[in-house]
Amino acid sequence: MKFRIGQIAAWLGGTVEGDEMVEVHTLAKIEEGTPGAITFLANPKYTPFIYQTKASAVIVQEDFKPSETISAALIRVADPYSAFTQLLEMADQAREASLQGIDPRAHVAPTAEIGENVYIGPFVFVGAGVKIGAGAKIHPFVFLGEQCQIGAETTIHAHATIYHYCEIGQKCIIHAGAVIGSDGFGFAPQEDGTLKKIPQTGNVVLADEVEVGANATLDRATMGSTQIQQGVKIDNLVQIAHNVTLGSHSAIAAQTGIAGSTRMGAHCMVGGQVGIVGHLDIADRTQIDAQSGVNKSIKQEGQAFRGSPIQPFRQQLKSEVLFRKLEEMSKRIESLERALAQKES
């Protein structure tokens, strides 16, 4: 679809500098702009590209002052990054809106309840008693186990698996290959040295506006629910074990693993490759740096940690500085010991 620059400026609450009738039909990075594209300038580092770009329009800060001639039309807004994000959202919504109906190659159980304007792609399996809310998008090869619930306007991408009895809230996004509701890692050691499987009879519950990355795994609870509260963002390749609770609007980066029954507060931020042991309590607004190992509960809110095992952030930085000096310190100690020995002799 094509839109005039004047229309876009009106949507964004901006003003046009140049020809308002110029039409654009695609979005682009400023260094890769082509005729018919709209781009943006938010980071000063990319300013040189605005004088070179072939894009038809550029979204800029209200007070931007060019030092050279710019061939593109400008849309001046208060926050170019947010404005361009708004355009990205609109483009994505337009693409999603084009997906409607139930593909005849999908299997939908007769007892499933399907809301209005739902898209179910080819080779999707919808089990008995499944409920899918209005406007949901279920992409090809998704598996929805019996009695699971999918909220309105939720998108589940290809090859994701939602096990039986799990609940997904409204406006969630589940990316390709994610597995929600697989068995928790529960085994009881036996006298003969074998491990007896403990049935995992609970489920996983995702609140509204949760996003789960590609190939992430969220295990069902032994009893009760593994709970992912509103607005949580989980990156690719994250492992959430049984009976974990993640507080609202927390973000978990890739390759992190959280062991069973740990409870994380709201607005926490966890870097990539973090390991968190089980049965811990982590306070609200905790920040954990990448590759850290968390082996104890964190009681005080709003603290930052780093290292394995974790220490307060600045304390760990000091420890790392000292560690880099160990070789030099060791040589100095050996030198002092030799000098002392010679003096004593």
Plain-language structure description:
By secondary structure, the chain is an alpha/beta fold. It is 18% helix and 29% strand. Strand 22 (187-189) and strand 23 form a beta hairpin. The longest helix has 19 residues, at 326-344. The N and C termini lie far apart (91 Å). The mean pLDDT is 95.
- Give the total of beta strands: 40
- What helical percentage do the residues reach? 10-25%
* β-sheet strand percentage: 25-35%
Low-confidence blocks of residues:
none
Question: What is the overall silhouette?
Answer: flat
Question: What about the largest sheet?
Answer: 12 strands, mixed
- Derived from helix and strand composition plus strand pairing, the structural class reads alpha/beta
Number of helices in the DSSP assignment: 5
Spatial separation of the terminal alpha carbons: 91 Å
Radius of gyration: 27 Å
Query: Numbering strands along the chain, what is their spatial order in the largest sheet?
Result: 8-11-14-17-20-25-28-31-34-37-39-40
Mean pLDDT: 95
